[in-house]
Amino acid sequence: MPVKPQFAEVIVNKAVQAVDRIFHYQIPDRLAAQIEVGSIVIVPFGRQKLEGIVVGFVAEPEVAQVKEIDELVFPFPLLSKALIDLAYWMADYYLCPKVSALQAMLPGGLKLLPTGLKGKNTEYAFLVQPSGGLGQEGKPSGRIGSKQQQILAYLGEHPGSPVTQMLAATGASRSSLKSLLEKGLVEVTREEVYRDPYGQRKLPKADQHQLTEEQINVLKSIETEYALNNRPILLHGVTGSGKTEIYLRLIERMLTDGKESIILVPEISLTPQLVSVFKSRLGEKVAVLHSGLSWGERRDAWVNIARGVVKVVVGARSAVFAPCFHLGLIVMDEEHEQSYKQDNVPRFHAREVALERCRLQKASFLMGSATPSVETYYWALEGRYRLITLKYRIYQRPMPTVKIVDMRQELKEGNRSIFSRLLQEKLRERFSRGEQSLLFLNRRGYHTFVSCRTCGTVLKCAHCNISLTSHGGNRRLSCHYCGYSIPVPKTCPQCGSLAIRHFGTGTERVAEEVKKLLPEARVARADGDTTARKGAYDEIYFGVKSGAVDVLVGTQMIAKGLDFPLVTLVGVISADMALHLPEMRAGERAFQLITQVSGRAGRGALPGEVVLQTYNPEDPTLLAAARQDYSTYYQGEIERRRISGYPPFGSVIRILFSGEDYGHLQRDALIIARFVQAELNEESEILGPAPAPLEKIKDRFRIQMMIKTRNLAETRLDLVRGLDLARGEGYPHKNILVAVDVEPLNM
Ligand code: ADP
Ligand code: ZN
Ligand code: ZN
C-alpha cells in the first residue's frame, strides 16, 4: 500500500478574502487510512474549529508549527479531484473565493454536513466498494462465510437496504453483518429513509417511442461527433421535435458503457412530466434534484451519486456539480435559460461550468434548445460547437399558426377589455369544443401599479425603489423584491386625494376576467403566488394534464417545456412587456419567451393556434417570434451585438456597489473605479459608475460600473489588482459591499 504523506492541504470553511488559501495540517495516525482528497474534516483554526476540505497532500508542511486534523466528518470523500480542480477554475474565472466554489458543490454547503449525519434511527447498509468510483485501498482480511456472502450479494442488488429488511431477506444474523463491518466490506449509516420525494406519487408511465427518421439521423450524427471529435454539441430543435427522446437514448448508451449522465433543466421545468419520463424510462438509477428538496433528501441523493448507486442525475443549475466519478455526458436542456446563471456567490453560469467539467472529465456535452442563446449559436456557427438541427415536429405536426392582434385598433373600436375580440372568440370556441387554452402574462398580481390621479405619485415600496403590485383582488399592495406589504390606502399618502387608481394587469386579474367571459369554465392560475406552497404546482399540472382545467393562466412558469396535448390555443396577453426592458438582452428574451409559449400549442393530434396581443404589431422581434423564425431574429441580433461589442464579441464584468448612505456609496464607487481604471488594459473600457437599474433594494442603494472587454483573461487580473490596491487604501468602507459579476446575464 502506498504510504500517504503525513500532511494534508486543507481549504477551510471561511469565505474571507484573506483566508482563501490552502493550509497545512498534520494527519493523525488514527485517520491516516481514511483521509483522502475530497474528505471533509474538522480542523483547529485560530481559536475556532472549522470544517475543511482536504484538497491534496504534501510531504513537507510550509510552517514548522503545524496543527493536527481533529476529526473526519464523513466516511468517504464527496468530491473528486476533478471537482476540486473545477472549483479552482471557478474561483479564477468568476473571481470568487475557492471555498465558495467548493461550498456550491456540496448539498447545503460545508456547514451542514456534520449535523446532517447524526441522530437518525433507521440503519441502512451499503457495500463499501460499489460499482461507483469510491476506490478504497487494501484487501479484506479473513474468511467470508456463506451468510456473509449472501449479505454481500443482497447489498449488491439492494444498495442502501434497511438493515432489518436485509437480514430478513437473507436469513443472516447480526453477527454476520458485524464481521463484514469489521472487515470493512460493508458500511452502515443511521438515518431516515433514503427519502425519495417522488416515492409516494403514482407517476404516469412514459413509453419508449419508435424513433422517427429525423431522430435516428440526429442520434447518429451526435454519436459520431462524440466518437470522433467530442466537440460540445448544440441541438437546435423546434418546440415539440422530440429532443427529450434523443437525450434518453444517449443516456441509455452511457448506462450500457457504465458511465454516468447529468441532465440539467431549468428549475421551472422540473415538472412531474419530466420526472416521470426519466423515472419510468430509467428506473431506480435516477436521482432528481431541485430546490424543493429538504436538506436530508438532497444529502441522500448526493451520497447515492457519489457511491455510484445513482447513475443519472436530473436537476437544476447546481446539479452540474453532482459527484459523478465516471461522468460520460452532461445534457443541458433549454440552454438559453437565464436560470442557469446563479446570482449570488459564486456567480457561475452552469453552461460554462459544464463545458469545463466535461473537459476535465473527458465527458461529452450536449446543449438543446428551440431558441439558443445568441452566444451559443454564434459559437456553433463558428465551429467551436457542433451544430445539429431537428427541423420538424414529431409526425411533421404543423407549427401553430400565429395571429398578431393590434391592441391600439381594439381600443379605437371601443374594446376596453384585456382580451381582444379575436381572443374572446377563440376562448369561447375552445371551451365549447372541450379543448384547453393557455393564457400567458409575465406578471403576477392583480394590478401592477397604483398611482394618484391628482398628483401623479406612484406608490412605491418603503425599502426599494420599486412600485407596489396589488394582490388579493386589490386589497393589499406588495413589493416583489422584499415582500413589504400594506393595505391599499384610501387616500394618496402624498396629497391626500381620494383619486387612487389601479393600472396594469397581472395574472390574478386575467384569471378573473376569464371567469367573467366563461362563467362555466374551470380556470387555474400558475404563478409565484399560487405555487408557493409545496406540491401546489404539481396539482395544477396534473389538473391540466388530466383535463380537469379548461383555461390555465400563468406567468413564465407555463411558457416552457410543458407538454399538454389538449392545449390548442395559446393567448399572449401582452407581448410588449418583455420587449421594452432597458436591457441588452431584452429582445433575445422576448423572442425566446414568445417562441416557447407559442410552442405549447398544438403538441397533440389537434393543430394549435396562438393569439399575440400587442401595441407594437410591426416590431421585428415580435414578427420573427410569431413565425418561429430563429434565423432572421438571430441575424438581426448578432449584428447589434457586433456593433456594440457585447457578447459574443466581448465580455462584460459588472461591479455592483451597495450601501445605505448614498453619499458614501458614491464616493467609494468613484474612488474604486479610479483604482481599477489605472490598472486596466487597452482592450477594455469602464462604463459608469452610475445608478444601477434597480437603484434601491431592501434599504440599500445600488451603483454599478461595467467593464466591457475583448480580453477577459487579462481584465480579470487587472480588476483584481485594482480592487486590491483600493482595499489597501481602505476602500470600500466597511458598510459598503462590492459584488463582482463576470458575464452577468441581466443587463
Ligand atoms: P421538445 O423537447 O423537442 O419540445 P419533446 O421531447 O417534449 O419535444 O417531444 C414532443 C412530444 O413528442 C412528446 O409528447 C414526446 O413524447 C413525443 N415524441 C417524441 N419522440 C417521439 C417519437 N419518435 N414518436 C412519437 N412521439 C414522440
Ligand atoms: Zn396624490
Ligand atoms: Zn421592497
Automatic annotation (TrEMBL):
Residues 224-390 form the Helicase ATP-binding domain. InterPro entries: DEAD/DEAH_box_helicase_dom (IPR011545), Helicase_ATP-bd (IPR014001), Helicase_C-like (IPR001650), P-loop_NTPase (IPR027417), PriA (IPR005259), PriA_3primeBD (IPR041222), PriA_3primeBD_sf (IPR042115), PriA_C (IPR041236). Coiled coil: none annotated. Residues 487-654 form the Helicase C-terminal domain. GO terms for molecular function: hydrolase activity. Its EC number is 5.6.2.4. Initiates the restart of stalled replication forks, which reloads the replicative helicase on sites other than the origin of replication. Recognizes and binds to abandoned replication forks and remodels them to uncover a helicase loading site. Promotes assembly of the primosome at these replication forks. It catalyses: Couples ATP hydrolysis with the unwinding of duplex DNA by translocating in the 3'-5' direction; ATP + H2O = ADP + phosphate + H(+). Belongs to the helicase family. PriA subfamily. Its cofactor is Zn(2+). Zn(2+) 2 binds at C461, C464, C479, C482. Component of the replication restart primosome. It is an enzyme of class 5 (isomerase). Keywords: ATP-binding, DNA replication, DNA-binding, Helicase, Hydrolase, Isomerase, Metal-binding, Nucleotide-binding, Primosome, Zinc. The keyword Lipid biosynthesis does not apply. PANTHER family: PRIMOSOMAL PROTEIN N. This is Replication restart protein PriA. Binds 2 zinc ions per subunit. Zn(2+) 1 binds at C452, C455, C492, C495.
